[in-house]
Amino acid sequence: MKGKTAIMKPTFVYLAQNTARDPQWGRDSRSLLEVSLDKLYENYNNRFGQSIIIFHEGDFKANDQVAIAKGRPEISFHEIEFKIPDFLDKSKVPDIWVSSAGKAYGEWGLGHRHMCRFYTLQVFDLLDELGYDWICRFDDYSILHSPIDYDLFEYMDNNNLEYGYRVDSQEPFRLTEGFSEQLLNYISEFDVTPTFFDEHIWKPGIKDKLMNCYYQMMAIRWPLKKNNLRIAGTYDNWGYFNNFFISKLSFWKSLPVQRFLHYFDQMGASHIHHWNDLILQSAAVQIFMQKNKVHKFEDWTYEHATIRNGQLEYGGIWRGNKDTEGLAVKSFEKRYGAAVFDIDKTY
Question: What is the pLDDT of residues 293-322, one digit of tens each?
Answer without folding.
Answer: 999 999 999 999 988 888 898 899 999 999
